[in-house]
Amino acid sequence: MGSIFIQNSRAVSDTAVPDLFIDNYMPQANGEFVKIYLYLLRSLHQPEGEISLSSLADVFSCTEKDIMRALRYWEKNGLLRLSLEGKDLTGIEFLPVRDGREHPEPKPATAGSSGRLPRLSAGRVQELQKNNEDIRQLLFLAEQYLGRTLSSTDVNRILYFYDGLHFPMDLIEYLIEYCVSKGSTSLHYIEKVGLQWHQEGISSVAEAKARTSVWNKNYFSILKAFGIRSRNPIPAETEYMNRWLKEYGFTMDLITEACTRTITQTGQPSFQYAEGILSSWKRAKVCTLEDVRRLDTEHRNSQKPLSPARPARTQTASRFNNFHQREYDYRQLEKQLFEKQLAD
Prior knowledge:
InterPro entries: DNA_replication_prd_bac (IPR017019), DnaB/C_C (IPR006343), DnaD (IPR053162), DnaD-like_sf (IPR034829). The chain is mainly alpha-helical. It has helices spanning about 20-25, 30-45, 55-60, 65-75, 120-130, 135-145, 150-165, 170-180, 185-200, 205-225, 235-245, 250-265, 270-285, 290-300, 330-344, and strands at about 5-10, 50, 80-85, 90-95.
């Protein structure tokens, strides 16, 4: 993979982040995508002005596909222009940050929010369905997958993927098929999954399949580390695993080690206990198993040495034996008692 030449079409002399980027683009974007964009801004001022996908992947401890997904996201939003030779990325051009976007994107679901996408107007829904055989076919397939007749609200929510998020028809169909295969026919769940794909820059069925394949493998690897087999993860478990893999950015060997320690300490699988271990490692900036061993050594060294053992007593005093022990001749006592009886 060759180097990538970064061209600057913006008049800046330092690594300045435009207010428009912070106001209009950053709140809706995936956090990893924001970090990659900011790092590229900084890279403009490197003397050679060249980087590579592999070097970016090393910096962010991710794959080159993850880097490309972020770049495509910013290209789609009009902030970058990518130059390709075949499948090889050869150039990245920064474009001026506009005041507002042509297709504003919904804010991602956050903890405590409904996570629902905006709705299309009734007129727009009718316009999309009118004389559009592809959309009618999509809605028919959705009814087959979900096993029910779609309500007007259902239709609105599905069409927003097409008109609001600009998903291709086959990607929407695969989204519904994937969620149903996971055991959920809830439009709310389908929305959450689709929004997550959108935030990750997924724009094709191939990318979605690659993403779900990797994540499913990781899910079941973690369940296996907990000794859980023959079932799918429940939503609460998936939330924990997503945090460990995506937010914390831990590798599978670190997560597996935390699962092993959880079983050793508690005797049972506990995602909450493992979360305590992994969150502490995140605060300690743990990146490898070697870092874990270093922390273990530091913890052992910080423990106070045990007090030297006291010499064992040959006989422990108590209220029952803290007096002078007398010795009796039981034969003599028996003889004396017999003589006394004869005298009487």
